[in-house]
């Protein structure tokens, strides 16, 4: 972020605008840094406010600070306090609040505290670029306001409309219609400062609308039928026109139509409260929210109809594979559009015969269902095979979910005395494919890898201790030259700099090869990677670096044993090497078996406590 200058008698290129992003998620920091750096900005990221202050003190005050108010003031603390601290610390910088929270009060508090804009994660790449460009352009526009006031007002108005449209796009994220209704009502309330909002979005058989959601102290939430009188109001709403109703005896009201293809699919009634009337700007916001809200409601309703149709698999009662094909393509398209990630899981219960174990089918379905969020999609291809689509998750999150489902299925099968083994495969967008077909193929391929893995042959389970796992693998070891382990470590550590955006972890236990492990780690220096390195040490000095964490091996694991485990988005790899013999050769077992790497990773996590959350 620092700016170099030299007196060479020639004009220097303009300094790059400086962006400082604060977020505790390594993936999000990598995403922001990569996107904005490619756009020509000087970008630094920090995992905390304190670390950000250190960077700015060393390299200069930022022009734009991107931060999550909920992270700056965690727990029940005032979300405005963190934004106020940033404004006080860097008074010449503009703050862009960017949070995963959909809480309307958080947005309002951040803007009141001085944030120039508020966006919701996961954020669209193009939207973030436009927002940053707009924030950097704002001071220049303000300085020229005396000469171009009208143009400035037009630009600000345009940015406001674009920002509103981007916030309305969040209505398309939920697949549950009730959640779409809640978000639509909250967005209308925030943009208009309405005291009360009532939403009619259920359509009865006779075509009448029924109230489904209400906000505000005086808003009733019962299933009231939409009022048909006065007829002029209903006619105007069906034509897609807002109806404002000022009344001296009542708070000002506005009726917002949600119209799709000439049909009234919903309507909202907003009450201003406090004896005021709605401003023109607020009425304009209502009109701009109405169209995407109507489209989002219709899309959610279509998904519900599809899920309740004849596409259900008869034995499980779940939607069938056709439903996954419909919903999955939509989610993959959204992942492309908004730069998100998702995971597709194939769940195969090998050896389970539904015709002989019909009574166990509900328990199997329940084991999977209670592991998922309400926004996840579960379908059945048959009673012994399921598919799970999980949005807004990364490869690590997909594997964690896979292991939870597998354990619960094993518990059900054991309790039912059924001889069957669950095998699960997980594929991730965009790492394993950018179409639903490619993701499905990758997930099925990984199911086959589970069936064929050495893990089954050696009887390695989730509870198998690390020492026992290592002993079983070393029984299959080859005697290799003494420098093989060091060369493998150098290759994998050097690969971190070549693949800085691959998210994952690299576990290293040098054993007798300390120098061969520590030298390439030291050479990494301050290179930031999305792969976190965990180094087992017995008290030796650990190389400094942004993603290196020291820990101790479990007491029952020999210090003469070397371990390497790479897990995540990069190619999987596992190595265990025993004690050298007199000629220097060592027993080495190494493999790219992804199932083995996964088991070793989570066993290491259980015994050393490093950062994969199970």
Summed up:
The protein has helices spanning 26-38, 49-59, 69-72, 79-89, 104-112, 125-143, 149-168, 177-192, 231-238, 280-307, 321-338, 361-369, 395-415, 436-452, 454-457, 466-474, 484-498, 514-524, 594-608, and strands at residues 18-22, 42-46, 64-67, 94-99, 117-120, 196-203, 209-215, 243-247, 250-260, 263-271, 342-350, 377-382, 385-391, 421-429, 478-480, 504-509, 531-536, 548-551, 562-568, 573-577, 586-591.
Task: Describe the structure in your own words.
By secondary structure, this protein is an alpha/beta fold. The protein has four domains: 18-143, Response regulator (Rossmann fold); 172-306, GAF domain (Beta-Lactamase), CATH 3.30.450.40; 321-452, Reverse transcriptase/Diguanylate cyclase domain (Alpha-Beta Plaits); 466-608, 2-Layer Sandwich (Endonuclease, Chain A). The protein is built from 19 helices and 21 strands. The strands form four sheets. It has a seven-stranded mixed beta sheet, sandwiched between helices. A five-stranded parallel beta sheet has the order 2-1-3-4-5, sandwiched between helices. A hairpin with an 8-residue loop joins strand 20 (573-577) and strand 21. Helix 7 packs parallel to helix 10 and helix 12 packs antiparallel against helix 13. The chain is flat, with a radius of gyration of 29 Å.
């Amino acid at each position: 972020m620092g700016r170099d200058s030299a007196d060479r008698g020639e004009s220097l290129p303009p300094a790059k605008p400086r962006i400082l992003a604060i977020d505790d998620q390594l993936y999000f920091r990598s995403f922001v840094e990569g996107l904005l750096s490619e756009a020509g900005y000087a970008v630094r990221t920090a995992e905390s406010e304190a670390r950000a202050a250190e960077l700015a003190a060393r390299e200069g005050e930022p022009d734009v600070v991107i931060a999550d108010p909920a992270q700056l003031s965690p727990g029940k603390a005032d979300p405005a306090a963190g934004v106020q601290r940033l404004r006080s610390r860097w008074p010449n910088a503009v703050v862009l609040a960017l949070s995963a929270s959909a809480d309307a009060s958080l947005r309002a508090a951040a803007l009141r505290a001085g944030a120039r804009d508020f966006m919701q994660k996961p954020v669209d790449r193009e939207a973030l670029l436009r927002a940053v460009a707009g924030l950097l352009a704002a001071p220049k526009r303000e300085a020229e306001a005396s000469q171009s006031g009208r143009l400035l007002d037009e630009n600000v108005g345009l940015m406001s409309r674009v920002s509103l449209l981007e916030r309305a796009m969040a209505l398309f994220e939920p697949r549950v219609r009730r959640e779409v209704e809640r978000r639509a009502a909250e967005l209308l309330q925030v943009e208009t400062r309405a005291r009360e909002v009532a939403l009619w979005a259920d359509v009865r058989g006779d075509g009448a609308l029924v109230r489904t959601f209400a906000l505000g102290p005086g808003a009733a939430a019962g299933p009231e039928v939409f009022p048909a009188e006065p007829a002029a109001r209903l006619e105007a709403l069906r034509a897609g026109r807002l109806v404002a109703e000022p009344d001296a005896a009542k708070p000002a009201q506005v009726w917002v139509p949600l119209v799709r293809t000439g049909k009234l699919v919903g309507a909202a009634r907003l009450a201003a409260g406090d004896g005021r009337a709605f401003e023109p700007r607020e009425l304009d916001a209502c009109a701009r929210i109405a169209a995407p809200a109507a489209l989002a409601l219709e899309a959610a309703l279509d998904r519900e109809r599809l899920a309740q149709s004849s596409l259900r698999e008869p034995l499980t009662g779940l939607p069938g594979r056709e439903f996954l094909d419909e919903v999955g393509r939509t989610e993959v398209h959204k992942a492309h559009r908004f730069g998100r990630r998702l995971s597709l899981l194939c769940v195969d219960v090998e050896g389970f015969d539904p015709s002989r174990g019909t009574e166990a089918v509900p328990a199997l379905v329940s084991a999977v269902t209670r592991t998922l969020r309400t926004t996840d999609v579960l379908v059945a291809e048959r009673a012994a095979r399921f598919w799970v689509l999980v949005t807004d998750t990364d490869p690590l999150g997909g594997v964690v979910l896979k292991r939870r489902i597998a354990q619960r299925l094993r518990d059900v099968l054991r309790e039912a005395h059924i001889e069957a083994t669950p095998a699960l495969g997980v594929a991730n967008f965009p790492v394993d494919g950018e179409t639903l077909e490619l993701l499905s193929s990758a997930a099925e391929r990984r199911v086959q890898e589970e069936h064929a893995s050495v893990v089954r042959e050696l009887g390695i389970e989730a509870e198998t201790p690390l020492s026992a796992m290592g002993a079983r693998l070393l029984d299959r070891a080859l005697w290799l030259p003494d420098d093989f382990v060091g060369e493998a470590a150098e290759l994998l550590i050097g690969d971190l700099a070549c693949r800085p955006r691959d998210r994952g972890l690299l576990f290293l236990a040098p054993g007798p090869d300390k120098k061969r492990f520590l030298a390439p780690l030291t050479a990494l220096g301050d290179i930031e990677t999305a792969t976190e390195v965990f180094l087992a040490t017995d008290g030796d000095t650990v190389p400094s670096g942004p993603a290196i964490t020291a820990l101790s091996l479990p007491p029952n694991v020999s210090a003469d044993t070397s371990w390497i485990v790479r897990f995540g988005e990069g190619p999987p790899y596992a190595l265990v090497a025993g004690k050298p013999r007199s000629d220097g050769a060592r027993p080495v077992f190494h493999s790219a078996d992804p199932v083995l790497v996964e088991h070793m990773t989570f066993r290491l996590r259980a015994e050393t406590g490093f950062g994969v959350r199970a």
